[in-house]
Amino acid sequence: MKPLRPRWWRRIKFRLLCFGVLMSILPLALLGFYNLRIARQNLETSISYHHALGISQVADNLTSLLNELQHSLKVLAVTSGSGLAAMPARERAWLLDAARSKMPDVRELLVVDSAGHLLAQVSGREVLPPQQFQPDLYAAALHSLNQGQTYQGSVYFTPDKEPVFQLAVPLLPEPDGHPGGGLIALVSLRNIIDRLTAIPVGPGGYLFLVDGEGRLIGHEDYSQVLQGRDVRPSLAALAIPSAGGGLPSDNSPSPFSRLSLRANNNGLPAVSRYQSYTGQEVIGAAAPVGNTGWRVIIEQPVANAYAPFHTLIRNFTLGALAIILLVLAVSLAFGLRFSRKLEELEEGVHRVAAGELGYNLPGAGEDELGQVISAFNQLSQELQQKKGMEVAIRQADKMVTVGLLAAGVAHEINNPLATISLSTEDLLERLQEEDINLLKENGELSQYLKLIHEQAGRCAGITRRLLDFARQREYKEELYDLNQVIQDVLTLPAYKIRKEKINVETFLDPAIPSIYGDREGIMQVVFNLVCNALQALPRGGHLTVTSKLVDTTTLALTVQDDGTGIPPEALPHVFEPFFTTKPPGQGTGLGLSVCYGIVTAAGGQIDISSQPGQGTRVDIKLPLTQRIAIPLMSGEQV
């Protein structure tokens, strides 16, 4: 009966494959996860530092430009002094135009006296007439100049949508101490922003400038300024306060953390990740522009910022997949090669266990598995030799027993032969004296023939049982009835039993089912035990043979006599080959050794207990195995 093969997920082939895949994926995954995490951290640090440094440089440059512009106006005011008002109009206009040409961000430059009257105004290379002067537009600047203070106004848009602001610097006071008027510059932010956008902010990034009211006054994409784009969501996410002190009015909650404009550990502006006014998730930072209340903001979409990392992940995934497939192929090839030898070894074990002794496996090599295969082949050969020796010993033991029974069998056959001979002679004499038809009619002829047939059958049964017992057969397992085996064995020494007047009792349990095993071997065991008991019994002795169903898995066989018994010093050696307590020439010492080998090979156990002068008891326990249909993986049935 072939054993069941394990399920596919329990087979060593599957486990080897899983081990190879796991050992290829796990280290690579752990190493990749660690490296990707470090790469992400480094990228985040690099992005944060780049943005913080960039926005800080932009804010510093813009502050420097404003300071330089204010400084240039102050230098002009100091060098010109109060004499600027006394100059001829043409000379004054020429001086203003020359000064404005050195300040490309100044759209218009004006000179006013202490009373607020326009003395000169230049725009580009054009000298504007005084009637175009709008005092109301410069009221705040004129007020600061009368106080002798520098003035920087709020940003506003000209009719052509250009963001400008006013920058006013007072002239030197009059000799009598009265204010001497001042210079008013109309500064354009568009040119300043255009120069600042040359600083790289990363793929997809952009810069924009807001004033103290949160209005967009400068942007890389000037169309955003022309459209008056509302950038307050970005200001709210960055927690930039408005001029009123607090967040802009449209500060809807953001799912991202908000950072104030305080500096980080490096003294640079803090970088935050938030939802931009464009609706994108961005990485941004803000920096103040001097004391103007303006803020420069840099933003870069997260998708663009992390594009290198996503490329790294994609390349790593493709590379890891290629490595995994390669390792998987190598593991699969090695696993199949290794498991194929194991399957061959398993098949060899099953074939040897099924009785195919001497079976050799191919593929013996110098590695450990090859040495196991070589050892298996050697063991298979040794088992074959041992089996042959056991068969020879069992057959020799049979022939010795048959020799001892020969005389009894001869007497058993002589009785029916004598009956046949007498019946035949009597029938022949009557046929000579009487009519055969008369013998037919009265039935005597049929009685003679029936008697002869019965006696001939009796002789045939005796010889058949003896021949069956003595014949050397190939080992095989079959279904048999233990009780029937006991009854067949007891018919063989029937002559000796009658001659010695042995009282034989059998107690055979009818509940014992047919079992699957070595019928011939069990028959030899029973016969040897019965013969040993008959040899130890005196005339008129008592022999008991019992069979019993112990439980659902075990049955018991007991042979007990009240003969001479076995000496205590000999009892431990009774199963040793060639050990015997019989006189020389009356035993080979193989009987109990053969019995022990047959019973243990059947998975059972045999025990002997004996007391000198009181008899011997032999107890055998056999596993109750029945041949049933068991579904195998191949679909066969046993």
Task: Write out key terms for the chains shown.
5-stranded antiparallel β-sheet; alpha+beta; 7-stranded antiparallel β-sheet
Question: What can you tell me about this protein's structure?
Answer:
- The chain is rod-shaped.
- Mean pLDDT is 77; it is low at 243-263 and 627-638.
- It has helices spanning 12-80, 83-86, 89-101, 139-146, 189-196, 222-226, 232-237, 302-305, 307-353, 368-433, 436-442, 444-470, 482-491, 494-499, 519-536, 591-601; strands at residues 106-112, 118-123, 126-127, 151-152, 156-157, 163-170, 182-188, 206-210, 216-219, 271-275, 281-289, 294-301, 478-480, 503-508, 515-517, 542-549, 554-561, 605-611, 615-623.
- With 638 residues, it is an alpha+beta fold.
- The longest helix has 69 residues, at 12-80.
- The chain contains 16 helices and 19 strands.
- A hairpin with a 5-residue loop joins strand 10 and strand 11.
- The relative contact order is 0.07.
- The strands form 4 sheets. Strands 1, 2, 3, 4, 5, 6 and 7 form a 7-stranded antiparallel β-sheet that branches. It has a 5-stranded antiparallel β-sheet with strand order 9-8-12-11-10. The chain has a 5-stranded mixed β-sheet with strand order 14-16-17-19-18, with helices on one face.
